[in-house]
Amino acid sequence: xxxxxxxxxxxxxxxxxxxxxxxxxxxxxxxxxxxxxxxxxxxxxxxxxxxxxxxxxxxxxxxxxxxxxxxxxxxxxxxxxxxxxxxxxxxxxxxxxxxxxxxxxxxxxxxxxxxxxxxxxxxxxxxxxxxxxxxxxxxxxxxxxxxxxxxxx
Length: 153
Prior knowledge:
By secondary structure, the protein is of the alpha+beta class. It has one domain: Small Protein B, Chain: A, CATH 2.40.280. The protein is 31% helix and 35% strand. It has four helices and seven strands. It has a seven-stranded antiparallel beta sheet with strand order 1-6-7-2-5-4-3. Strand 3 and strand 4 form a beta hairpin.
């Protein structure tokens, strides 16, 4: 049970809005009140994105609301947060994200072994016809599954 993951936030729109080419796990540098707020299950990664600046990876616009029992030393909910990645990963993801049309977006935010982690996806934006195509594939898959369930007694 030590390896159990506890999901905090899931970016459901990410797979609808983007093609995810690659996913990588990164740690987060957080303050104490941020961790307590996350343990309470409060966070939003819908508008978040990551960037590589000066050889370091940063996560922007992840909203962690202030901890209710916090004092005047509570954190800023929208501050940028440093991502913990190996140097090779930072360089590789930074190079790929710098290509036209690519961006780094968080897919999931979770605790693993008591540490806050974020799953970053190297994403390429979908166009409107790509989204319609994905919806059509999903609908046809549902129809097939329904037909199989009806057929088998």
